[in-house]
């Protein structure tokens, strides 16, 4: 079970600090920003933060990572991520082991790869590269956000398998989810997409993480190009980031 640690209050000027990195910050409603604050305070109390190799892990780093991550939870009925205990932050790209959440546990690549982030199985750490975190937050229209990507993997892992199907409480959504995601996955393989990164074709787990990035970073474009996918993600996250119209 989760260790229940006390929430860590954010500093008074937390929104100014976040807005310095996130150009879309003030477009959010006061309700959403308040919910993000409450969730971020819980996450800050839940996580042990570790700087990698000489990186200076400041309160600003913790604040930005936490406030980005909890964007996933804003509409959901949970107030904390499953199995997130440690976040390790590097200054820059990570030379990864090639291990990634894949179709089957124990399947690894041999080659080293350069990564913006990693999410280990079970309650293993999330690893992030700070320069990628800040660049992507500053340029949301590029459709990438490594924080959302890695924390989405943790949601996917909650049911014990990394298969692109997170714990879906509603059985009718589960059926539609699998149909839509499978179909869109094959379309992405065959034709590519304006909105979904090709990295989503690696496996179903990466598809979920990549589609999550698109859903939050380029919601209108996702809805236009892949309306069915947008609809099932809106039902799962209980958010409608593309808004009315
Ligand atoms: Zn991934």
Could you list some keywords that capture this structure?
245 residues; 6 strands; 45% helix; globular; binds zinc ion
Could you explain the architecture of this structure?
By secondary structure, the chain is α/β, with parallel strands linked by helices. Helices cover 45% and strands 9% of the residues. The strands form two sheets. The protein has a four-stranded mixed β-sheet. It starts with 13 loop residues before the first helix and ends in an 8-residue tail after the last helix. Residues 102-109 have low confidence and may be disordered. The site of zinc ion (ZN) has 5 residues, from helix 5 and helix 7.
Secondary structure topology:
Elements lengths: L13 H8 L8 H17 L1 E4 L7 H11 L16 E5 L3 E3 L16 E3 L1 E3 L6 E4 H9 L7 H12 L13 H21 L12 H14 L1 H7 L1 H11 L8
Helix pairs in contact: 1-3, 2-3, 3-4, 5-7, 6-9, 7-8, 8-9
The site of zinc ion has 5 residues, from helix 5 and helix 7.
Short summary of the structure?
With 245 residues, the chain is an alpha/beta fold.
């Amino acid at each position: 079970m989760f260790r229940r640690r006390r929430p860590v209050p954010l500093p008074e000027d937390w929104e100014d600090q976040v807005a310095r990195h996130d150009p879309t910050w003030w477009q959010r409603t006061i309700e959403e920003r308040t919910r993000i604050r409450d969730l971020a305070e819980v996450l800050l109390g839940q996580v042990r933060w570790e700087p990698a190799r000489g990186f200076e892990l400041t309160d600003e780093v913790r604040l930005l990572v936490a406030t980005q991550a909890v964007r996933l939870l804003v509409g959901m009925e949970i107030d904390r991520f499953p199995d997130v205990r440690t976040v390790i932050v590097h200054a820059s790209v990570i030379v990864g082991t090639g291990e990634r959440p894949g179709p089957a546990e124990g399947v690894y690549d041999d080659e080293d790869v350069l990564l913006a982030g990693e999410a280990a199985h079970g309650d293993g750490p999330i690893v992030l590269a700070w320069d990628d975190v800040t660049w992507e937050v500053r340029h949301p229209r590029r459709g990438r956000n490594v924080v959302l990507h890695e924390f989405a993997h943790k949601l996917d892992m909650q049911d014990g398998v990394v298969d692109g199907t997170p714990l879906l409480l509603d059985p009718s959504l589960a059926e539609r989810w699998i149909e839509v995601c499978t179909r869109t996955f094959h379309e992405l393989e065959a034709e590519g997409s304006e909105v979904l990164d090709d990295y989503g074709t690696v496996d179903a787990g990466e598809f979920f993480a990549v589609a999550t990035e698109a859903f939050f970073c380029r919601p209108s474009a996702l809805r236009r190009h892949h309306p069915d996918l947008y609809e099932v993600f809106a039902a799962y996250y209980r958010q409608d980031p593309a808004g009315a119209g």
